[in-house]
């Protein structure tokens, strides 16, 4: 009972004498708490895909709702996006904010491609993601099941495009392999 009496006395003291100071201190703590929860991340739907497969890249900002700056796609072609999602909730006195951008990308060549980093500045503090490695292999990585098939949009490249492969012989080998795979699919 004495704890409740002491707590009541403290609350009455703040209400009568120092409510402005109490609110100022409370707002400082809330501001610090909100800024400490801000984070930026990147996720990909798969870390290994086939040459004609697509990958979904999602950049997610938690604790704020600011537009992201994303470096240009190198080795990837954007086929959809940005798909933007933004949410704000206030439940039981706790607020949360989220902002995300998603893209559907297809590779321009086989090998290792880096998903670019994204950055944002929140309260003069920069946040940045690290680039993510994406492995692109010759064969598709999806499986067909029953009568349903997964449709893909492919990017056709002219034979004059080298697709960033340094060795011309390797490039020609990959072109022949791709054409053989297409012929096998027709049968």
Gross morphology: elongated
Determine the CATH topology of the largest domain.
Answer: Immunoglobulin-like
Number of helical segments?
3
**Which band does the percent of strand residues land in?**
35-45%
The largest beta-sheet arranges its strands as: 1-3-6-5
* CATH homologous superfamily caption of the largest domain: Immunoglobulins
CATH class of the largest domain: Mainly Beta
Overall tally of structural domains:
3
- N/C terminus separation: 85 Å
Notes on the structure:
The chain is an alpha+beta fold and 187 residues long. It has three domains: 2-36, no CATH class; 39-143, Immunoglobulin-like, CATH 2.60.40; 156-187, no CATH class. It is built from three helices and ten strands. The strands form three sheets. The chain has a four-stranded antiparallel sheet, with no helix packed on it. The longest helix has 19 residues, at 168-186.
């Amino acid at each position: 009972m004495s704890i409740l009496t002491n707590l009541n006395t403290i609350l009455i003291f703040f209400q009568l004498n120092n409510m402005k100071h109490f609110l100022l201190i409370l707002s400082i703590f809330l501001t610090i708490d909100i800024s400490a929860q801000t984070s930026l991340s990147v996720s990909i739907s798969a870390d290994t895909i086939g040459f004609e497969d697509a990958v979904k890249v999602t950049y997610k900002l938690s604790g704020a709702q600011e537009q992201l700056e994303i470096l240009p796609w190198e080795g990837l072609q954007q086929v959809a996006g940005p798909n933007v999602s933004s949410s704000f909730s206030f439940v039981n006195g706790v607020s949360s904010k989220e902002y995300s951008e998603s893209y559907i990308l297809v590779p321009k060549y086989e090998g290792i491609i880096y998903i670019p980093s994204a950055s944002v500045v929140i309260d003069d503090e920069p946040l940045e993601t690290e680039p993510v490695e994406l492995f692109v292999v010759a064969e598709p990585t999806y499986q067909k099941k029953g009568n349903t098939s997964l449709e893909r949009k492919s990017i056709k490249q002219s034979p004059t495009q080298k697709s960033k492969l340094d060795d011309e012989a390797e490039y020609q080998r990959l072109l022949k392999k791709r054409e053989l795979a297409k012929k096998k699919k027709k049968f």
